[in-house]
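Entry:
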Amino acid sequence: MNRSDMRQVTFEIITRTPLPVGEQVFVTGNQHVLGDWNAEGLPLTRTQDNVWSGTAIVPAGERLEYKITRGDWTSEEILDSGSPSGNHIVEPGGDLTVQHRVAAWQDTASGPTPQIVGDYRFHEGFHSKYLRFDRRVIVWMPPSYQQSQTTRYPVLYMHDGQQVFDPQTSTWKQDWQVDEWCTQLIDEGKLREIIVVAVYSTEDRFVEYNPSLAGGEYTRFFLEELKPFIDREYRTLPDRANTAVAGASMGGGISFYMAWTHPEVFFGAACLSPAFRFHDDSRLFEIVRHTAQIPDTRFFFYCGLGDPTEQELAEGMYAMADLLRERGFGSSRILTTEDPAGQHNEMAWAKHTPEWLRFLFGK
């Protein structure tokens, strides 16, 4: 076929949200250059966060049919309705640029509508240069956020974000009910209106939440990437007096670590069933013992006693509370509570959500 019989088709594919680092977009279709319907047809290049581009030389006189994938047919483009997209058509003609918006992908199609009370926003594929995996971040906004365009709000950061608001994403279909309790306590005048930022955990949870492993890098992600983004995109009160952190189990341990080592950022932390002594790791105790200038930070400690895991964690919690008192912490800066029946699960932690919320942000 002569060169004059060919044409140049440039594809510009726009995704609804940026894809995580390492992902790839492909155009596959009824031409050899498009893979002859191989899902890894023409690889595109990321030109902006959510824009991918590539060019194919195809016969000018033939009808071009194509689809969009991320490398296999389980990740092909689908419609907003969830139905598969049909073949896209480019009629015979000359050179042209085809701009196409992808509504959704088959393998990441939205599940059931989130069961979250109030106003919230998802940030998908949040990337960190310090950590291996991108992650989802949910931002919950207080009742008056959309009504008042000038009011700024304190911020609570939370770990294990999939457990915080939505029972559909949480273990055993039981979440921490932070959305429900914030809504109720704010309505009752018992809680300041706050923004809650819940960060999903990844398969690196064990190392990221461990100060002896990647806890330092995870903390840098919070301080250097996540918090600046939240302060830029939302109407926050970014100062130390209005910023706290909370988590459970290893999330409780890393919350303590963040608040203790960065009192210029966090005024307090809620540490539920905190893993202060996990597998005989005494790193947090060493940090507290060797800190020269004791931070002016407030801590809420909770642990259950209803199963062996909680009983073991409670020993570490009591030991940490004793150490803090030795170092000068008074009753106004540390509150320790226990639940004789509490087990190591979301149901028990949800029961105590209103207590630590009021400890940190109560009126």
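The chain has two domains: 3-108, 119-361.
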